[in-house]
Specification:
Blueprint (H helix, E strand, L loop, with lengths): L1 H10 L9 E2 L7 E2 L7 H12 L6 E4 L14 H30 L3 E6 L3 H4 L6 H21 L4 E8 L5 H10 L1 H5 L10 H13 L9 E4 L2
Parallel strand pairs: 1-2, 3-4, 4-5, 5-6
Helix pairs in contact: 1-8, 2-3, 3-5
Length: 218
């Protein structure tokens, strides 16, 4: 849904075979719930099977954005769940991708969808979300530095508010007009805008751009 669906559709074209993931696995996607141990590696193997053993690009977009008030009794549980889905699963998939590219002696690309929260923080109820996205940015830069010699490129995209169901609920809960006033463009991003950046990174961005963190926040 949202950004993930837009990215999938932007890549679903002649000469490209794209495999997607969702929690439910409907519409031909691979079912994977990243809160479950082993889900990332199982997804990777199923994707390899569908792609005849060769993957060229990994795009990590799955994410969780749930409030976690600091006085909540289950604060640590909520923190760990967000970290598992937003960061650890992405790290597992990045690791598998790097190993795959290296073992096949082939170039490869990784595109991680982070957030503006990675460097400007988020609301008092979203420490975990901001921390997970900051971790994703740092991981992306580390991968870019470590494996450029192997022609493995890594990019991260940091959207601001994007018109998805998740963002709509958040805007409504925090006073949409006030938040929009803080965006010089005067509106939130559309999923298709983020998808166009992801597609560029996946297919066309020059190798010297590896490690780039691309803002899309208006």
């Amino acid at each position: 849904r949202g950004i993930g669906k837009a990215i999938f559709e932007s890549l679903d074209q002649e000469m490209i075979t794209v495999v997607g993931q969702s929690t439910s696995g409907e519409d031909g996607l691979i079912a994977a719930g990243f809160s479950q141990a082993g889900a990332a590696s199982a997804l990777w193997q199923q994707a390899l099977d569908r792609l005849d053993g060769r993957i060229n690009v990994l795009i990590n977009n799955a994410g969780l954005f749930e409030p976690n008030p600091i006085a909540a009794d289950d604060w640590l549980e909520s923190w760990n769940r967000t970290m598992t889905i937003n960061l650890t699963a992405s790290a597992e998939l990045c690791r598998l991708a790097v190993l795959h590219f290296q073992q096949r002696h082939q170039p490869g690309r990784i595109v991680n969808i982070a957030s503006r929260a990675a460097y400007r923080g988020d609301s008092p109820d979203h420490w975990h979300y901001a921390a997970s996205k900051a971790g994703m940015v740092a991981m992306t830069k580390t991968i870019a530095r470590a494996y450029a010699k192997d022609e493995i490129l890594a990019f991260a995209i940091c959207p601001g508010f994007t018109m998805t169901g998740m963002a709509e609920d958040y805007l409504a809960s925090r006073g949409g007009d006030k938040l929009l006033a803080d965006i010089p463009l005067g509106r939130v991003a559309q999923p298709e805008e983020i998808a166009s950046i992801a597609r560029y990174c996946a297919l066309d961005a020059p190798p010297s751009m590896t490690g780039a963190i691309l803002d899309a926040n208006g």
